[in-house]
Amino acid sequence: MEFKQLVNDFIPELTSLSKKYDFTDELNDAVKTHNEFKLRFPFIGSFSTGKSTLINTFLDDKLLGVQVTPETCLPTEIRYAEHESINLCNSDGVVSTISREQLKEQDFLLPDRDRDYWIEITLPNKSLKPYPELILVDMPSWESGIRAHSQAIDHYISRSRTYCIIVSAEDGTLKQSMKQVLQELKLFRKPISLVVSKGDKRRPEERILETLLN
């Protein structure tokens, strides 16, 4: 965020130079891109690995439901704002406003099931406030087998700069589907963070991390 402020400090000087050397349109386009910059940070993993629980813990808020089924999950984007809002969206914009309870239960109507839908949430959350450009994305299960989920996940590869991979210690090793995910992200040169969840389910002497990373 310090870098963004540094750029903002130079914009008045750049504006003056753009008028002198006739590159105002180019500067305006660059400033618009700069102002609209968002860092999407998707959390991906198999079903019930703890993606939603991890995000809830970071937010210190029981926002996301942890009992929903793979069939009902939608990509859910969460970012900071001064006022809370929860909206069901598609490529045309906001479809409907939903409540926290509807969000937890994924209890809402999709008008056209052939369209891609996602949830957009804004929160006046203290953990998000220092990072206004950050968008956390709770993704559907990578291996749900549902076409809409695969399309949504593929769509985020081109829109995201880094990923958080969630692996359950209960699995004991990386599933083949997750190895394929890592290979795909490697092709796109996407940096990742690895989180091992549910570590309390296995004994330390089982050396879960070593098993997972191998």
What's the helix and strand layout?
Layout: H1 2-21, H2 24-35, E1 39-45, H3 51-59, E2 76-80, E3 85-90, E4 93-97, H4 100-105, E5 118-123, E6 134-138, H5 147-157, E7 163-168, H6 176-187, E8 192-197, H7 208-213
Parallel strand pairs: 1-6, 1-7, 2-5, 7-8
Antiparallel strand pairs: 2-6, 3-4, 3-5
Helix pairs in contact: 1-2
Task: Describe this entry's structure for a reader.
There is one protein chain. The chain has 214 residues and is α/β, with parallel strands linked by helices. 36% of the residues lie in helices and 21% in strands. It is built from seven helices and eight strands, in the order H-H-E-H-E-E-E-H-E-E-H-E-H-E-H. Strands 4-3-5-2-6-1-7-8 form an eight-stranded mixed beta sheet, covered by helices on one side. Helix 1 packs antiparallel against helix 2 (24-35). The model has no long low-confidence stretch (mean pLDDT 80).
